[in-house]
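Quarterly update from the structural biology core.
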Amino acid sequence: MLIESRSPDTPSMPVVALRPWCVDDLDDLVHAYRDPVLRRWTRVPVTNSAEARRWLDGALRDWADGRRYSFAVLEEQADGARLAGNVVLKGVTPERPAPEVGYWTASWARGRGVAPRAVTALSRWAFDRFPEVTRLDLLHQVDNVASCRVAQKSGFVFQEVLPARPPFPLDGHRHTLAAG
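Predicted structure, tokenized:
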């Protein structure tokens, strides 16, 4: 199954497309995780092809159980699409008041509007796919200033400071986006 959502193209920013992860992405996934900034904010290490395969297998299981949806973020380039990041919708369950949006961006794609465009596209998809969802949360540690900017640029509104909880040692911010 292929699900694709595209953010608007602008003259200075190419199209960003979202699609489920696949085996062809494994080498690019390992390459993206070589970035120490990315590793600082993620919990699951991906340092080799075996770990990348476990990560992908987990993403595919999550799709199958319907509670977590990870998308490869691709940016259109003159020579084809290039992996620019990941966006994920977590916790799509009746027991949870609002699913959580998460993301990471490859080092080469940072500072170019990739993350806000991908988060916006994922949010639209989530509200369309799950009409019962009326709100999305985006959480990040207080010292992750870039994630705070992504939340704001994606239309998420700051709600509160959350106390630290493992595996994150510092307090966090919760931003929300309402449907409609």
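Helices lie at 26-32, 36-41, 49-65, 114-129, 145-153.
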